[in-house]
Amino acid sequence: MKTLLRALTVLAIGILAASLPAAARTGVLLTVKVPFAFTVGDTAMPAGNYIVERHVLPSHVIIRNRDNGASVIMLVGPAPGYGPPQKARLVFSGAAGRYRLEQVWSADVFGGDQLVQAR
């Protein structure tokens, strides 16, 4: 009986994992060159080449600088403007040399991720 229960549990987990879109699971969303310094939450990040990874459970992104290895993890929620997949991109706010990362969008996921800023 325990063997049957264990087999059914493994099968259920496998079906659940297979039903998630590939991009909704853990993985690299995009690699990008950011030509200016910016902040992610309270962390200052220099201009450079970045890898952005999306993770679920809990929903968060990891922004990693490929040049110096610095990284930051931020919780995310759904970004306004849910709709069909668009071009993968990072959305920044700010001006005059002071930019803040606000959103991360993937080319193959409906909607984007809004970074949760500490208050």
Please provide a written account of the structure.
The protein has one helix at residues 2-19, and strands spanning 27-34, 38-40, 43-45, 48-55, 60-65, 71-78, 89-95, 98-105, 112-115. The protein is globular, with a radius of gyration of 17 Å. It has one domain (24-115). The protein has one helix and nine strands. The strands form two sheets. It has a seven-stranded antiparallel beta sheet, with no helix packed on it. A two-stranded antiparallel ribbon has the order 2-3. The chain is an alpha+beta fold.
What is the topology?
Blueprint (H helix, E strand, L loop, with lengths): L1 H18 L7 E8 L3 E3 L2 E3 L2 E8 L4 E6 L5 E8 L10 E7 L2 E8 L6 E4 L4
Antiparallel strand pairs: 1-4, 2-3, 4-5, 5-6, 6-9, 7-8, 8-9
Summarize, please.
This protein is of the alpha+beta class.
Low-confidence stretches: 7-25
Rounded to the nearest angstrom, the radius of gyration is 17 Å
Overall structural class, as computed from helix and strand content, comes to: alpha+beta
First-to-last CA distance: 51 Å
How many helical stretches?
1
The order of strands across the largest sheet is 1-4-5-6-9-8-7
Q: Looking at the structure, what is the overall shape?
A: globular
| Helical content class | 10-25%
Sheet with the most strands, sense and barrel status: 7 strands, antiparallel
The total of beta strands comes to 9
| Share of residues in strands | over 45%
Q: Estimate the mean pLDDT confidence.
A: 78
* Subunit organisation of the chains: single chain
What's the domain count? 1
Give the helices and strands as they follow along the chain: HEEEEEEEEE
